[in-house]
Design goal:
The protein is of the alpha+beta class. The protein contains three helices and four strands, in the order βαββαβα. Strand 2 and strand 3 form a beta hairpin.
Length: 86
């Protein structure tokens, strides 16, 4: 098991209301043993790499069925949050 931390930003395109798709995305990530911390411009997600990558993919695909979106991600196994459990 490898623990990683990801900084994720989601950008819904061609939408008048941005809150709904972003909230849907966050709700999809707030399960499956992931730690989710909301920020003003991005969300930090910490957890097992397999769980994190699977949930990111599933959340993206679910939202992409309804909206046009851009997701940016920075993923590391060397962040302080990850290293404190080693």
């Amino acid at each position: 098991m490898m623990k990683v931390q990801a900084e994720i930003s989601l950008y819904p395109l061609r939408q008048n209301e941005l809150t709904k798709p972003i909230q849907q995305f966050i709700q999809a990530l707030e399960n499956n043993k992931l730690k989710v911390e909301l920020g003003p411009m991005s969300t930090l997600i910490t957890g097992d790499s397999q769980v994190l990558f699977r949930n990111l993919r599933e959340a993206f695909e679910q939202l992409a069925e309804e909206y046009e979106i851009v997701m940016t991600a920075k993923i590391s196994n060397a962040c302080p949050e990850v290293n404190k459990d080693r």
